[in-house]
Amino acid sequence: MEYFQEGGIARKIVMFLMAFRRFVLEIAISFFLLTFLIYWYSPDILLALQLHLDQKLAFFGVFEPVIALLKISAISALVLLAPWIMWRIGQVLSALFGLKRLFIFIFVASGLMLFYSGAAFCYFITLPFGVNFLLGYQSQVVKPVISIGKFVDFTGLFLLGFGIIFELPLVMTLLCRLRLCRPETFTRGRRYAVLIIAILAAALTPTPDVVNMALMGIPLYILYELGILIARLSRPSPA
User: Fold this and answer.
1) Hey, what's the torsion of the CAs at 90, 95, 97, 102, to 10 degrees?
2) Measured by CB atoms within 10 angstroms of the end CB, which terminus of the chain is less buried, N or C?
């Protein structure tokens, strides 16, 4: 897909905006259609989440179950559309910056692997641990009653959040590949990276305890170091 041909900067900007508009329209149409199709299977998805986290749910409004199932459908649609979204982003980057097809292929494959790895890490490790910790405050007198809407918001936010956060090495490598920064920039910024990672871990993990924060903070720092290593190995040759 060729977005830019030879010409002035203004022409390239116009073509990019036209391609971006088409990209947004394609994503929007595909998202709504897929959300509609997945809605029929959303009760099964909700049941799988309930069984996985061993929770009983309740609802406190007439429309709350319908809205919750719509949210599940929308989140599932985004997860399923991730390969196509990554591929389209790769096409735009290739056209805009002249990146080679091999790099775009590696970019898309790595992005998908990192996204799904982050979501899986959250699903199998962080969420069960966090939910068990939070519900550990119940007693014979105080019993939890979990709203279906809050449950869907909670799980969906963290699944998507972890998937996006795990893209860190890819973003670092891309910035260096585009010569917007150098691997040495990330090396010198380790102390600031540790601080930002600690803040993100505190904000995004389900519980504020040190153990649960470490479940996100440690993998995220490992990904940061991995990003530095990959950025060095894929450093573009001097012009």
Assistant:
1) 50
2) C
The structural domains of the chain, with segments of one domain joined by +, span 1-166, 167-239
In contact, 165 and 204? CB cutoff 8 Å: yes
Is residue 12 within 8 Å of residue 118, measured between CB atoms?
Answer: no
DSSP bridge pairs for 146 = 57
For the chain, the average pLDDT equals: 85
Length of the chain: 239
Phi and psi at residue 118, to the nearest 5°:
-65, -45
Whether pTM exceeds 0.70: yes
- N- to C-terminal Cα separation, the chain: 26
